Amino acid sequence: MNSKKNAYDVVVVGGGAAGLSAGLVLGRSRRRVLIVDAGEPRNAPAAHMQGYLSRDGMPPAEFLAAGRREVETYGVEIAADRVTAVRPDGAGEFEVDLADGGRVHARRVVLATGLVDTLPDVPGLAERWGRDVLHCPYCHGYEVRDQPFGVIASPAMGIHQALLVTQWSKDVTLFLHTVADLPDAEWERLAAAGVSVVEGEVAGLEVEGDRLVGVRLADGRVVPRSVLFVAAKAVPRDNLIGAVGAVGVLGALGAEMRDTPHGPYPAVDETGRTSVPGVWAVGNAASPMEQVVNAASAGYRAGVTINAELVMRDIDATADRRRAGVFTPEAEAQVAAAVGGHRVHGLTH
Ligand SMILES: Cc1cc2nc3c(=O)[nH]c(=O)nc-3n(C[C@H](O)[C@H](O)[C@H](O)COP(=O)(O)OP(=O)(O)OC[C@H]3O[C@@H](n4cnc5c(N)ncnc54)[C@H](O)[C@@H]3O)c2cc1C
């Protein structure tokens, strides 16, 4: 591999809504960009993506395919691969290792790796995830409105989900599962919301003809339900398989983290900048709360900020060289290449 060929202004790790959106604005800023995507977007199990203005109901795969076509229009490269490590190169930039054995150089890195939903330990949930076992009423509630809902209480979120989903159905049963008991005030809120409560551990699901029909308790009782909400634990997917190990790439780089109800997430500013100079984290890699539209927006903001920072950095470096009397035509050509030397492919729309 030729090192020049493999040097990018920005390597984006992850090609979901966040990563593609960063790639789009950077490509349009004439940056040399590589998006590396392992192809496991979080909402892949869902048939439709809801709540994205102008794309409401579009299949997630169709949305991402359109995004890939758009970024490629601007010369952004997309590699179907997995980043295994991101390492500082000792000069304020980065070496990025790929699972296929390749290595690329990046002036800036955007982590847009999403998160992994860790489901409660109940047999059968994973098989129905995103179909009739759900986590987010904003994503799916309207489509399953007025059906008999079940909600598995979670030690972290308590009864919140059960109360919230009454906006979409008045037939809601809360399964206390492993939550031992509730304070009096919570029983009062459940009663006021009309939520039935079933004590006892959930042991599995009843499914007929590939549809959820009930929730089975450990004592053998079956409560008929056709939709089940669960509070999945949302764990950021930053442990790029390989050299950085379980602490995650940001941990390995020494990034500051912040506590969330789902565990530690990187501390970022409003542009997605982490505490590690040169590394941004956007979308679900930075926050468990981001929906697709927010993830796309976060990627865009990061892209805009990174481009502006690189423009100013290169101009300041030239000014410094001129001031020091070490300016050469070669140096100027280098800067020109970095700022404007990236070929823009023909627009098709
Ligand atoms: C079942 C379900 C349904 C949902 N429905 C909706 C909905 O209707 N509307 C809505 O707005 N939101 C919905 N969401 C939430 C939505 O999935 C997220 O908001 C969105 O996917 C976040 O985008 P992202 O780009 O941050 O991450 P993702 O979309 O998860 O993309 C991350 C990408 O990074 C890649 N990646 C990870 N690690 C690496 C690596 N080391 N190297 C290379 N690539 C890597 C992954 O393979 C993946 O392709 C749903 C979530 C679930 C679980």
What keywords describe this structure?
seven-stranded mixed β-sheet; alpha/beta; elongated; FAD/NAD(P)-binding domain; 2 domains; five-stranded parallel β-sheet; about 350 residues
Bound molecules: flavin-adenine dinucleotide
CATH fold descriptor of the largest domain: FAD/NAD(P)-binding domain
What's the N-to-C terminus distance? 34 Å
Count of distinct strands: 19
**Helical/strand content category:** alpha/beta
Helix content: 25-40%
The Cα radius of gyration reads 24 Å
Dominant shape: elongated
For the record, what CATH class of the largest domain applies? Alpha Beta
The percentage of residues in β strands lies in 25-35%
- The CATH architecture category of the largest domain equals 3-Layer(bba) Sandwich
Largest sheet: 7 strands, mixed
Average pLDDT confidence is 90
The number of distinct helices, counting runs of at least 4 residues, comes to 9
Number of domains: 2
Q: Helix and strand succession?
A: EHEHEEEEEHEHEHEHEEEEEEHEEEHH
The parts where pLDDT drops under 50 for at least 5 residues are 241-246, 341-349
Provide the CATH superfamily of the largest domain.
FAD/NAD(P)-binding domain
Provide a compact summary of the structure.
Helices cover about 30% and strands about 25% of the residues. By secondary structure, it is α/β, with parallel strands linked by helices.
What features would you describe in this structure?
The protein has 349 residues and is α/β, with parallel strands linked by helices. The protein folds into two domains: 7-117 and 234-340, FAD/NAD(P)-binding domain, CATH 3.50.50; 122-231, FAD/NAD(P)-binding domain (3-Layer(bba) Sandwich), CATH 3.50.50.60. It has nine helices and 19 strands. Strands 1, 2, 3, 4, 5, 6 and 19 form a seven-stranded mixed sheet that branches. The chain has a five-stranded parallel sheet with strand order 8-15-9-10-11. Strands 12-13-14 form a three-stranded antiparallel sheet, with no helix packed on it. Strand 2 (33-37), helix 2 (60-73) and strand 3 (77-80) form a beta-alpha-beta unit. Helix 1 (17-28) packs parallel to helix 8 (292-324) and helix 8 (292-324) runs antiparallel to helix 9. The longest helix is centred in the C-terminal third of the chain and has 33 residues, at 292-324. The radius of gyration is 24 Å and the shape is elongated. The two termini are 34 Å apart. Residues 241-246 and 341-349 have low confidence and may be disordered. The structure holds flavin-adenine dinucleotide. Flavin-adenine dinucleotide (FAD) is lined by residues 13-19, 36-43, 45-46, 49-52, 82-83, 112-114, 117, 130, 136, 139, 237, 240, 283-285, 290-293, 295. The site of flavin-adenine dinucleotide has 40 residues, from helix 1, strand 2 and helix 8.
